[in-house]
From TrEMBL, chain A:
This is Xanthine dehydrogenase family protein molybdopterin-binding subunit. The keyword Oxidoreductase applies. GO terms for molecular function: iron ion binding; oxidoreductase activity. Residues 21-141 form the Aldehyde oxidase/xanthine dehydrogenase a/b hammerhead domain. It comes from the Bacteria.
From TrEMBL, chain B:
PANTHER family: OXIDOREDUCTASE WITH IRON-SULFUR SUBUNIT. The lineage of its organism: Bacteria, Pseudomonadati, Pseudomonadota, Alphaproteobacteria, Rhodobacterales. This is (2Fe-2S)-binding protein. SUPFAM superfamilies: 2Fe-2S ferredoxin-like, CO dehydrogenase ISP C-domain like. The keyword tRNA-binding does not apply.
Amino acid sequence: MPKDTGIGASTKRREDVRFLTGRGVYTDDLSLFGQAHAVMVRSSVAHGRIVSIDTAAAESMPGVLAVFTGEDFKDVGGNPAGWLINSRDGTPMREPKRPVLAHGKVRHVGDAYAAVIAETYAQAKDAAQVLADATVIEELPAIVDMRAAVADASNRVHDEIPDNLCFDWGWIEDNRAAVDAAMKAAPHVVTLELTNNRLVPNAMEPRASIGEYFPGTGDYKLTTTSQNPHLTRLLVCAFVMGIPENKLQVVAPDVGGGFGSKIYHYGEEALVLAAAKRLGRPVRWTAERTESFLSDAHGRDHVTKIELGCTKEGDILAIRTETLANVGAYLSNFSTATPTFLHGTLMAGPYKVPHVYVNVKTVFTNTAPVDAYRGAGRPEATYSIERVIDKMCRELGLDPFEVRRRNLLTPDQFPYTTPVGLVYDTGNYQATLDKAVELADVAGFEARRAESAKRGKLRGMGLSTWIEACGIAPSHLVGVLGSRVGLYDAATVRVNATGTISVMTGAHSHGQGHETVFPQIVAEKLGIPETSVEIVHGDTAKIPFGMGSYGSRSLAVAGSAMDRALDKIIAKGKKIAAHMLEAAEGDITFADGKFSVAGTDKAKSFGEIAFSAYVPHNYPLETLEPGLEETAFYDPANFTYPAGAYICEVEVDAETGKVDVVAFTAADDFGNVMNPLIVEGQVHGGVGQGIGQALCENTSYDENGQLLTGSYMDYAMPRADDVPFYTVDHSCATPCTHNPLGVKGCGEAGAIGSPPAVVNAVIDALHSGGHTHVTHIDMPVSPNRVWQAINA
Amino acid sequence: MTKVTMTVNGKSVSAEAEGRTLLVNYLREGLGLTGTHVGCDTSQCGACVVHVDGKAVKSCTVFAVDVAGSDVRTIEGMANADGSLGVVQQAFQDHHGLQCGFCTPGMVMSSAALLAENPRPTEAEIRHYLEGNICRCTGYHNIVKAVLAASGQDAGAMAAE
Ligand code: FES
Ligand code: FES
């Protein structure tokens, strides 16, 4: 019997009511008295020297209040990279300054070099055009292709960086010789060169920011589309603008999706604050979708050569990769961690591979910055591994299911230290594989294939067994790895005098459903109704601290902080109860919302204890403070390791190259599941994005650095008729061993595990049709590419 | 600027609009009805869908002056008279057909228009009809389920869990 409340119940989301009735409040929905409108002026060339900007004409236009250029921000700090990565030779990465507005040079199409503030949006927009026309930019040759960027030292994105290289990273450098030797000795070596296509995250709500300044107190307020308001506050205050943190309130109200792109601090946030101060009025900015394409941090964009050494029976002996990773024109906040510690550390997959070595060179180009996008590094790792294993199976005539079974770690091997520096705490990869095989009806596949063939279609099946490291992140570990911040989280549980509860959490919900799920946990733990609990998030003035939501960390880290704070509430409640019940504290037990004296029927309800804490008439005031509110900071001991097995079935029309995903099965191990309805929704969404990456999405720059896919007319987003119903399962759970809820995180899984399953299925379909010369097709496997591959 | 009058969610309303003011801006800025969203600038995403004289329309493609006098319905007008969620809205909540909620107003308006035209659509018909509404969060699974359910069909049986 499924539960209908508390942990494990599919509680319907309470936040839905406001979203379904048009009463959500997103940043752009706010309208402030006296507000002015900002429009950014963006470069139309990929690379150029700013010769002159004549602001006079724009400044004299109707309604124009101010014009800002890079000159106005040249003395404030740059937007920093959050992780310091060292090259193989020990030298630190190159960190060019990322200014609020471009100064001296523009470095990608869409790079903002000025901003116009006006009474109305239309006036600002008109004046921005005039300003653009009055700007002289000497165009320089664009650096777009990564290989060309590192080959041609004469052409530089940043004048001070001679080879356009940010760093050349080896992981783990000490493994290298052993990996080379193992590769040499391997009876068979499979080599695959592949591209992990560049994607635009495309949260449906475009970025928006509103700056306010209060001259009476010198306080600032930033309302912004952020996944992590505290981090934004830290970056704006400590790094860019030099404002004391206590003088800036950052609010992220309802946020319409993030997928990574809203983790980062962007220049527009500093701009609206500076403009608000100069004008003494609120200043707002909202991106048009075209601006989102041009200026949001993009994702992926790796070119990888992977080699896999194995026995003829398919035992994996060694993996070696060389990757070029595009960071774009500037370093976005997580951009140096994504291709390294979120990618290289996963390169052993869920397998017992004795030897792994990863080399990543990150390259500056005249394109938008590239950073974490749903999955962040782990989809790239998974795609490389799962594609090369598939190729191995074809070269050696082995069954891909059998090969996975041979190589997967077994449950008795945990905790397991990988050759790339992680310690997997628990898992049962055979169980999720068996579950996927059962749910996908692999046994019936040949019959389905025959049926497809009757309709002239080639049917293929693709498998991927994936793992990720999430619950980001143990601070001690990421500190060693180069992180400049800690990645713990915090929660305050405030029990109100009447027994209702407010939880201030550092996690930020922009679709994940925290407002529903977190109360389920509180209700379960305190034995009170879910409706008595309210979640407060997204406001630095209300919550103690937090690092926000990304890396599937909300429950595993912020949820654990909340759990710890609840423990403290219960502990204090026991003290109060002991006093009121005239018993020893050690004799008080707490269950089902009641504090009882063990072995007696003497008890006080949770509500009575809360009331007593706030009306302390009969209360141990000499030894205990009144009130019932506790804060906990939680720093995880390890990453969490969700894992699973995905099976995709496609039909390919060999005449046109069109691929249809006809079935998709995901069997995942997320540890304990708090709300199955929401967890399944997360998997659906991730798989939808993964199918998008595999089949249709691609970000394309031409040789001049012009973005060819700058709108929904050109960038193919997956639509309702591009995807099937998915079959998802999370019953094979091995609870996380090191956090109190036993949760592993589910937000990124779908986007990590699905792309290789789709591509493997397409290759399988083509082989079944006799097109055995096709060993690989780069994503997106569009009709054009599939047709070309068939007819090569 | 001219004063543009129309009926929105059953009430006669008027607000100032320029010739270039889009219906979506008229609703959001003129009337403060911010439930209708703007997700793109190329009429592709469907976040802005409203009903104009009973038909689903992308309100970012229509000038407010061109629909003066029309009967417009937005997401704010979809609940039942007693304030409870309407059938389509309730189905979206029951089946978790929304996550961040940004595409949701457009999805609900499009789905309602579909059901008005075709009260028992097939899965394929739903997917085809919603082709003009982009959702980045849900992978569409639960949206399609919600529309099936709103049409009285057994969504659970049609969509394997
Ligand atoms: S805003 Fe109207 S279709 Fe995107
Ligand atoms: S629910 Fe977020 S875009 Fe659809």
